């Protein structure tokens, strides 16, 4: 997820309708004083809401300990979609991080200053992944579970080197990585790399951590490719509202059309081909059941295509929902770290009240392997718990969003 993105737009013509929305919903400024693009914050806020659902399901849902919700031999359509919709989170966050970096450069941040910020911010995110975040997920002995914060942090460090390149060159690099990663990875057998095996797992393909107990589900290079896409396409989000909407719609439809065409022929682009199932709905689920670890070309196309459509829809969101999404979307790192501890604590409480042993929630990540049935709750309880966690998060996220809006301390850019 991108807990680091700041979305802004250049001075532009604003229609009366857009001006009214801006006045009504208190448009915020970036730390550099540029106008923020609310739709980006709203989209980020929405995927934070979905991310909370995914992690609550991990802690609360009984089948989460037994089988993958995208396993078509065991899942149900509603369970599959509960998991699938959360596939939008990581690529959207990473893509928007790339857009944010482009915005900072376009708004006049010197390349040297931007590189320094990306380097230090990336290192800070990696430190958080191995400390507060890792402990919050596990509540146990040290365990390296290198997830999206690690991938974003490492990608930012790489971006520190490429932001001096023209945006179209960065876009070409992103396309090359997203399209070619699967092919390149297929040429290498990690078992034959010897001392370089760990580096391969950290950069190219998921694998265990050899230096500490844990696992690397987010190798950095394919996610860096997604961040490059965001940077290279960032110019779209600086357009005036009308052209921007047309450009985003074209981008979304292009991504989705490419996904459907490539997926239909079951060719290159995802290591898991789809197949006809016992019913039409399960066949559709097979068609969209794409690979996240690492993100395949098909995965990137369909998730970013859907996210761009959501971007357009969210521009028209008003009222309390808008306020909630903006609070989350403008405090992504704060909300991300906070939600881990809130969700884990709520899961412990309802688990113990339901007769589950408290020890289950400590050293939690190690219990996914070989778990037996009997722990956890049904999907309706998952959804109720999700809503409860969001209600707990909103006041704190709203408070911190106000702090960031009213103050300009340098260290707030790292939170």
TrEMBL record:
<feature type="transmembrane region" description="Helical">
    <location>
        <begin position="334"/>
        <end position="362"/>
    </location>
</feature>
<dbReference type="Pfam" id="PF07786">
    <property type="entry name" value="HGSNAT_cat"/>
</dbReference>
<keyword id="KW-1133">Transmembrane helix</keyword>
<keyword id="KW-0812">Transmembrane</keyword>
<feature type="transmembrane region" description="Helical">
    <location>
        <begin position="248"/>
        <end position="266"/>
    </location>
</feature>
<feature type="transmembrane region" description="Helical">
    <location>
        <begin position="215"/>
        <end position="236"/>
    </location>
</feature>
<feature type="transmembrane region" description="Helical">
    <location>
        <begin position="114"/>
        <end position="137"/>
    </location>
</feature>
<feature type="transmembrane region" description="Helical">
    <location>
        <begin position="84"/>
        <end position="102"/>
    </location>
</feature>
<dbReference type="InterPro" id="IPR012429">
    <property type="entry name" value="HGSNAT_cat"/>
</dbReference>
<feature type="transmembrane region" description="Helical">
    <location>
        <begin position="170"/>
        <end position="195"/>
    </location>
</feature>
<feature type="transmembrane region" description="Helical">
    <location>
        <begin position="143"/>
        <end position="163"/>
    </location>
</feature>
<feature type="domain" description="Heparan-alpha-glucosaminide N-acetyltransferase catalytic">
    <location>
        <begin position="36"/>
        <end position="253"/>
    </location>
</feature>
<protein>
    <submittedName>
        <fullName>DUF1624 domain-containing protein</fullName>
    </submittedName>
</protein>
<feature type="transmembrane region" description="Helical">
    <location>
        <begin position="374"/>
        <end position="394"/>
    </location>
</feature>
<keyword id="KW-0472">Membrane</keyword>
<feature type="transmembrane region" description="Helical">
    <location>
        <begin position="297"/>
        <end position="314"/>
    </location>
</feature>
């Amino acid at each position: 997820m991108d807990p680091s993105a700041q979305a802004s737009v250049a001075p532009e013509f604003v229609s009366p309708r857009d001006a009214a929305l801006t006045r009504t919903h208190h448009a915020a400024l970036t730390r550099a004083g540029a106008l923020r693009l609310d739709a980006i914050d709203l989209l980020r806020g929405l995927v934070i809401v979905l991310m909370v659902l995914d992690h609550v399901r991990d802690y609360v849902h009984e089948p989460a300990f037994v089988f993958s919700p995208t396993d078509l031999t065991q899942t149900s359509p509603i369970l599959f979609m509960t998991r699938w919709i959360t596939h939008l989170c990581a690529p959207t966050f990473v893509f928007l991080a790339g857009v944010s970096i482009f915005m900072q450069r376009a708004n006049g941040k010197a390349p040297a200053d931007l590189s320094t910020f990306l380097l230090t911010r990336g290192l800070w995110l990696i430190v958080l992944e191995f400390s507060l975040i890792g402990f919050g997920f596990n509540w146990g002995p040290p365990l390296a579970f290198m997830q999206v914060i690690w991938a974003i942090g490492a990608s930012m460090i790489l971006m520190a080197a490429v932001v001096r390149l023209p945006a179209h060159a960065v876009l070409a690099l992103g396309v090359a990585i997203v399209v070619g990663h699967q092919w390149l990875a297929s040429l290498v057998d990690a078992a034959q790399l010897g001392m370089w095996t760990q580096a391969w797992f950290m950069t190219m393909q998921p694998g265990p951590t050899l230096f500490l107990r844990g696992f690397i589900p987010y190798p950095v290079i394919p996610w860096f490719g997604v961040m490059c896409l965001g940077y290279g396409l960032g110019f779209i989000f600086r357009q005036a509202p009308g052209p921007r909407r047309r450009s985003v719609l074209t981008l979304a439809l292009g991504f989705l059309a490419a996904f459907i065409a490539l997926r239909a022929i079951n060719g290159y682009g995802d290591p898991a081909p789809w197949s006809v199932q016992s019913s039409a709905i399960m066949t559709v689920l097979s068609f969209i059941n794409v690979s996240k670890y690492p993100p395949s070309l098909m995965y990137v196309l369909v998730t970013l295509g859907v996210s761009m459509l959501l971007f357009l829809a969210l521009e028209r969101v008003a009222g309390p929902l808008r306020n909630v999404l903006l609070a989350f979307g403008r405090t992504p790192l704060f909300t991300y770290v906070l939600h881990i501890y809130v969700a884990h604590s709520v899961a412990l409480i309802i688990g113990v009240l339901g007769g589950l042993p408290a020890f289950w929630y400590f050293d939690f990540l190690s219990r996914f392997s070989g778990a037996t049935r009997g722990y956890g709750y049904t999907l309706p309880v998952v959804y109720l718990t999700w809503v409860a966690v969001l209600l707990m998060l909103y006041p704190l996220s709203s408070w911190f969003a106000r702090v960031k809006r009213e103050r300009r301390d340098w260290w707030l850019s790292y939170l």
